[in-house]
């Protein structure tokens, strides 16, 4: 139904932040491949439902990136489920997932669910703090997580998460060369056309989050940089 291997660009909206109708229209009509709803903190069912109903006015695919079992609702096109491969706490790798599948497993349409193998690389970001991710990683460490995601666990997505800071395009390039089928998502610190173009050359899909709330016109320019 949705072929993420064709995607190049995703906007990530935070249910914990306000966005006006006119800004949301620009985002949804920008030519991005999808709008993903997700955040680390303050993710409530009200926020998730509000963004879903407002993004639904447009034809752009709408994804919920699940970070809290209390804030899941039917009605999204796809559900992305993060599993933080470099967290030492089982809870963030398979623990919460086990609880959620116990509760919703029989109701779930598994064709709508894609697991993201997360590798968090900015130790200062909220997701790293929450999951106590080990971000002191060498190139070999990151490549090994990518290989595990693809070859061992057959995950559809490997997500290099720098949330809040611009990452290392050379490392992203190395990881891209490690992957064959698994789609490489890059997210973090993309604000400008040039940054999007640079990361877009090495990652399959770039994710643009916070800059939407900081400088929307520049954020919109990132779509044209990769498409
Ligand atoms: C009928 C019905 C309800 C259907 C739906 C079925 C369905 C989809 C069920 C889900 C089943 C399932 C397996 C759920 C998993 C549950 C879960 C809670 C998993 C844990 C996820 C996880 C590891 C979270 C940790 C944090 C994380 C990695 C978040 C990702 C998003 C992220 C990094 C955002 C950036 O953060 P932000 O808040 O924007 O940070 P700043 O403010 O600093 O920018
Ligand atoms: O907010 P930014 O830094 O753009 O990061 C995007 C996304 O990877 C966050 O999960
Ligand atoms: Mg954010």
TrEMBL record:
InterPro entries, per database record: GGGP/HepGP_synthase_I, GGGP/HepGP_synthase_sf, GGGP_HepGP_synthase
Alphabetized UniProt keyword annotations: Lipid biosynthesis, Lipid metabolism, Magnesium, Metal-binding, Phospholipid biosynthesis, Phospholipid metabolism, Transferase
Pfam families for this protein: PcrB
Binding site for Mg(2+): 14, 40
Superkingdom in the source lineage: Bacteria
Coiled-coil annotated residue ranges, if any: none
Record-level Gene Ontology MF annotations: heptaprenylglyceryl phosphate synthase activity; magnesium ion binding
SUPFAM superfamilies named in the record: FMN-linked oxidoreductases
UniProt entry tagged with the keyword Cell division: no
Cofactor(s) recorded in Swiss-Prot or TrEMBL: Mg(2+)
Chain sites annotated for binding sn-glycerol 1-phosphate: 12, 159-164, 189, 209-210
EC number(s) given by UniProt: 2.5.1.n9
Transferase as UniProt keyword: yes
Pathway in which the depicted protein is active: Membrane lipid metabolism; glycerophospholipid metabolism
Segments crossing the lipid bilayer: none
Function as written in the Swiss-Prot or TrEMBL entry: Prenyltransferase that catalyzes in vivo the transfer of the heptaprenyl moiety of heptaprenyl pyrophosphate (HepPP; 35 carbon atoms) to the C3 hydroxyl of sn-glycerol-1-phosphate (G1P), producing heptaprenylglyceryl phosphate (HepGP). This reaction is an ether-bond-formation step in the biosynthesis of archaea-type G1P-based membrane lipids found in Bacillales.
Subunit-structure text: Homodimer.
NCBIfam families given in the database record: GGGP-family (TIGR01768), PRK04169.1-1 (NF003197), PRK04169.1-3 (NF003199)
Family label: Belongs to the GGGP/HepGP synthase family. Group I subfamily.
Protein name: Heptaprenylglyceryl phosphate synthase
Annotated source species: Mesobacillus persicus
Lineage, opening ranks: Bacteria, Bacillati, Bacillota, Bacilli, Bacillales
Gene that encodes it: pcrB
